[in-house]
UniProtKB/TrEMBL annotation:
<feature type="transmembrane region" description="Helical">
    <location>
        <begin position="251"/>
        <end position="272"/>
    </location>
</feature>
<feature type="transmembrane region" description="Helical">
    <location>
        <begin position="123"/>
        <end position="142"/>
    </location>
</feature>
<dbReference type="InterPro" id="IPR050366">
    <property type="entry name" value="BP-dependent_transpt_permease"/>
</dbReference>
<feature type="transmembrane region" description="Helical">
    <location>
        <begin position="20"/>
        <end position="40"/>
    </location>
</feature>
<comment type="similarity">
    <text>Belongs to the binding-protein-dependent transport system permease family.</text>
</comment>
<feature type="transmembrane region" description="Helical">
    <location>
        <begin position="201"/>
        <end position="231"/>
    </location>
</feature>
<keyword id="KW-1003">Cell membrane</keyword>
<protein>
    <submittedName>
        <fullName>Peptide ABC transporter permease</fullName>
    </submittedName>
</protein>
<feature type="transmembrane region" description="Helical">
    <location>
        <begin position="148"/>
        <end position="166"/>
    </location>
</feature>
<keyword id="KW-1133">Transmembrane helix</keyword>
<keyword id="KW-0472">Membrane</keyword>
<feature type="domain" description="ABC transmembrane type-1">
    <location>
        <begin position="84"/>
        <end position="273"/>
    </location>
</feature>
<dbReference type="InterPro" id="IPR000515">
    <property type="entry name" value="MetI-like"/>
</dbReference>
<dbReference type="Pfam" id="PF00528">
    <property type="entry name" value="BPD_transp_1"/>
</dbReference>
<keyword id="KW-0813">Transport</keyword>
<feature type="transmembrane region" description="Helical">
    <location>
        <begin position="88"/>
        <end position="111"/>
    </location>
</feature>
<dbReference type="InterPro" id="IPR035906">
    <property type="entry name" value="MetI-like_sf"/>
</dbReference>
Amino acid sequence: MSELELRTVAVGARPRVATVRIGTVLAVAFALYLLLACLVPDAVAPQDPNQIAPRDAFSPPSPAHWFGTDESGRDVYSRVVFGTANSLLIGVAATASGLTLGLALAVLAAFGGRVFDFTVNRTIEVLFAFPGLLLALLVIVIAGPGPVTATLAVGLSTAPGYARILRGQLLAVRRSGYVEAARVLGHRPRRILGRHILPNALAPLLVLATLGIGQAIVWASALSFLGLGALPPTAEWGAMLSAGRPYLATAWWLTVFPGLMIVLTAVASTVLGRALTRVRAREGATQ
């Protein structure tokens, strides 16, 4: 064998090494920062977010106040840090409620027979006719404004998309070979559903939840900005955007930094969701 052939064999024999993208590393680091801000905000924020100092009102960003101060002299960075828990709680709760409702509709459509499948599909199509944020606004108009109502409204508006994806997963797993083998062996339908179908069909839930949290935070912040969610002086990103809107021309930092946190959180959520999708695809290719 020639030297060129030996080099070719050696190169071809190298094992594949999983590469980690810099965007994924930054998204993980930012997610850890958000988690730290939720669990121990006092360790991240230098000041009390509700401490009023009228003499320091509308101070621009500086070493003393990293994100500047608002109209009452409160430290904007501290309010952004303490608002992380409120914003993430709304996003996670809305995503959880949307996934729960979507899963219930998907199971009903996949295993309830043709009548239920037809009814659920038509209901999903009707809900898809409304833009998600418009559907959330409709729910708030009926139920009234507030953070709890905004959370449920965002969850309801995201449920149709989750239901359609999970229904397809359930039907695909239901027709698989190992489920048919379980039926032939005489296993009960409940055991087949709980042991074979649901664990395999719900594998994409983590990816869906990761992608959905960012979207839910954006929508919840939009509702708070419109005065339909959390209201000032609550330390919540959307409410801070609403409170800083009148001073946009003179104190840009009141809206720029809370808005930047919303954008970065949504981007980090999307990057992490896509990274999980690639991991699942790589695992499926190796099996």
